[in-house]
Design goal:
By secondary structure, the chain is of the alpha/beta class. The protein folds into 2 domains: 149 residues, 3-Layer(aba) Sandwich (Alpha/beta knot), CATH 3.40.1280; 63 residues, Trp Operon Repressor, Chain A, CATH 1.10.1270. The chain is built from 7 helices and 10 strands. A hairpin with a 2-residue loop joins strand 9 and strand 10. The protein starts with a strand and ends with a helix. The structure holds ligand 9D3.
Length: 228
Amino acid sequence: MKITVLTLFPEIFANFLQTSIIKRAQNAGVVTIEVIDFREYATNKHKQVDDSAYGGGPGMVISVEPIHRALLSIDGFESANKVLLSPQGETFDQATAIKMASYEHLILIAGHYEGFDERVYAFVDSELSIGDYVLTGGELPAMVVIDAVTRLIPGALGKVESFEQDSFYNGLLDFPQYTRPYEYLGMKVPDVLLSGNHQEIEKWRQEEARKRTKNKRPDLLKKRQQND
Ligand code: 9D3
């Protein structure tokens, strides 16, 4: 899979892309991530990529031309899946991540502080938000999407971290986990986990995951029943 990010702050991505699972996935060749500074595609003298809004108002608006020119520079951009990160998009979730992990080429477009000229929408396939809170830009959302999607690509994760075990993958929260010591300030590890009876342990974990989901995230249980 290839992921291309259009951003005005490529340096924000540098550290992230050098880290852990993302780096390993890139080294293993299962994903190639490319970051493009779309300011390079501004055509005016000062490399300005935004302008005041038609109709007036205090805010600036990201111009359509540098975005379009940056897209045209990307190899195979026409067949790629182009996603604009914006507060108006549909909310990103695990189902969306799974769908995106099947894309051959994903292009993420991140703005900063301000909205895009409406005509940018003519060049994208969808709009994506990561939740109902106001951020300063689409850079963190782009990294959230890259992280969630990359770990789903076959070969990106080691065996220990395989995503079939994920909470959200099976629609339930994680079961409670314990490690040494057996007792801490009077709090003991449930005996079933020391029983050595793997069938009992599995049963207990499933029950606990279900109980916990019912208590903390009843909305997930409802969603799960709909998908069954
Ligand atoms: C909704 C606020 N807008 C009113 C004029 C202005 C605006 C604020 C912040 C426009 C863009 C932004 C920057 N945010 C994103 O680009 C963004 C975002 C977010 O703020 N929350 C959740 N998901 C996303 S994806 C991109």
